[in-house]
Amino acid sequence: MARANDRTAAASVPAPNCFTCQWRQRSEWCALAREDVLVLNEHKITSTFEQGQFVFRQGEPCNGVYSIVIGAVAIRKTDPQGHAVLVRMRHAGETMGYRDFFAGGVFTTSAEALEPTRICFIDKRSVRMLLDRNPALGLGFLKRLAGDLQIAEDSLLMSAALTTRTRMAHLLLALKDRYANAEADGSLTMKLPLSRQDIADILGSRTETVARIIQALEKDGVARFSGRNVVIPDLDRLLDEIEDESA
């Protein structure tokens, strides 16, 4: 699907109620008092993005933060030669752009919808007001930043210690939790939100290597691939990929 050139095609939709939003209670925003939730509810702007549309682009001024209500977003980093690499994914319940917001500059990455996605935008004036009134909100973002750093360190360790095939197994297991459906025969089916290039980026590998790993997993009966559709006949065989590496 062709990517949108900018965000102008994003459709505004009725905003969800922050008081009943399941994700607010599981995110940094749970620290807000009732009167602050009223502020959040009144000032947020909710939009929908189709697959391939950008929520924000690297180099644009950071004028607020974005909270995902439904869907998945690819965070991409572009090098000076213009090559964009997927560095992480964001899902429903997660807030995007807060690191650039606190840095007070421009977005250092781009955010692209991987599937139909609904997002709430909170402008910087409202965020600053909520932070001033609720220091616990800032502490929540600090904890999230620490968690992101830990994930980045763990990813570096995996790249150094595990084979690409094992990292592929880890990725399929992580995606399984969000995208897999259990079938009557005990198998799992899922449609990956990632292209082969995106998978290679996450694994720190090349698309040719990913293609060879997919062929090997199919040959060994661990998984079957058809485009972005994946069938895992037996979850235990996928788990064995990880256990065999750590043995």
Q: What is the structure about, briefly put?
A:
The protein is of the alpha+beta class and 247 residues long.
Protein architecture, described:
This protein is an alpha+beta fold. The chain has 2 domains: 11-158, Jelly Rolls; 162-246, Arc Repressor Mutant, subunit A (Orthogonal Bundle). Helix content is 41%, strand content 23%. The protein contains 8 helices and 13 strands. It has helices at residues 34-43, 98-103, 124-133, 135-161, 164-179, 196-203, 207-219, 235-246, and strands at residues 11-12, 45-49, 54-56, 64-70, 72-78, 84-91, 95-96, 110-113, 117-123, 181-182, 188-191, 224-226, 229-232. The protein has a 5-stranded antiparallel beta sheet with strand order 1-2-9-4-7. It has a 4-stranded antiparallel beta sheet with strand order 3-8-5-6. The chain has a 4-stranded antiparallel beta sheet with strand order 10-11-13-12. Helix 6 packs across helix 7. The longest helix is centred in the middle third of the chain and has 27 residues, at 135-161. The relative contact order is 0.12.
